[in-house]
Design goal:
- The chain is mainly beta.
- It is built from 1 helix and 5 strands.
């Protein structure tokens, strides 16, 4: 799992049918480390919002969170970090 900050919505008028109904967002990885500052696209299944610091799971664990290993998703928001935690 990684920590990230949600920075924008991703709007797509055409996409794979299996992505219909998913809220896609752009996130920036935080918390230091080699990937800090890298931007990724995540599926938000817990109604987080822009500016929220979140916990993201990736790979096959992300697809399991969606209940279907065939959905082409690499990263899913699984938690919102409380404001009193420091990662930046």
């Amino acid at each position: 799992m990684i920590t990230a900050k949600l920075i924008d919505h991703i709007w797509s008028t055409r996409k794979a049918e299996s992505l219909n109904g998913l809220k896609l967002m752009q996130a920036e990885i935080i918390g230091g480390g080699i990937d800090s500052g890298k931007k990724i696209i995540v599926a938000d299944i817990i109604s987080a919002g822009i500016g929220d610091r979140v916990i993201v799971t990736t790979g096959s664990s992300a697809r399991r969170m969606l209940g279907d290993d065939a959905i082409p998703v690499d990263a899913v928001v699984v938690g919102i970090i409380d404001e009193n935690c420091k990662f930046e």
